[in-house]
Design goal:
The model has no long low-confidence stretch (mean pLDDT 94). The two termini are 16 Å apart. This protein is mainly α. It has seven helices and no strands. Helices cover 83% and strands 0% of the residues. The radius of gyration is 15 Å and the shape is globular.
């Protein structure tokens, strides 16, 4: 991997981490998921996963490192893999945004599965209590995805 590519991955991870901190007061209204999805589109799955792992691990150090960070990494990796394969079959932007939103909901569902299994709590009660957090996460991802996509496209990243 070239020095330029390592620098790009580090800078994009830093941007994602800063965006998490900047929006920390708004539960699940973050642009990091959109950054990960766009990174997969422009740079490929491996780079998207590298940015995601760096972002989640380093921000986890500051926001609270526990087993949930590992769950986040696994859940994001799963949805990014799905995104990589689904993206090429989506003919227009509207469908891409809908799939991005649905994958973000899937992330919340997977996180709920992990969390309820490790802490031995009722899945449906936990998931339904966090449903509006997943709605916020999906909406923010749908809002930020085209903005970040356009930045990547204009800068020829």
């Amino acid at each position: 991997m070239s020095t330029k590519k390592i620098s790009q991955l580090a800078l994009l991870s830093a941007l994602a981490i800063i965006s998490r901190f900047a929006l920390v007061q708004f539960p699940n209204f973050k642009m990091v998921s959109a950054i990960f999805f766009v990174t997969v589109v422009f740079w490929g799955l491996a780079d998207g996963i590298i940015v995601m792992i760096l972002t989640m691990t380093l921000s986890g150090i500051y926001l609270g490192m526990n087993v949930v960070v590992l769950f986040q990494i696994i859940a994001f990796a799963l949805i990014l893999i799905l995104w990589k394969f689904l993206y090429k079959f989506l003919p227009n932007t509207f469908l891409k945004l809908m799939v991005v939103g649905l994958l973000t909901f899937l992330y919340g569902f997977i996180m709920s599965l992990f969390t309820t299994s490790i802490f031995a709590i009722n899945f449906w009660a936990y998931y339904l209590n966090g449903f509006w957090f997943d709605v916020n996460h999906a909406i923010s991802t749908i809002i930020f995805y085209p903005l970040i996509y356009n930045i990547f496209e204009r800068l020829k990243l």
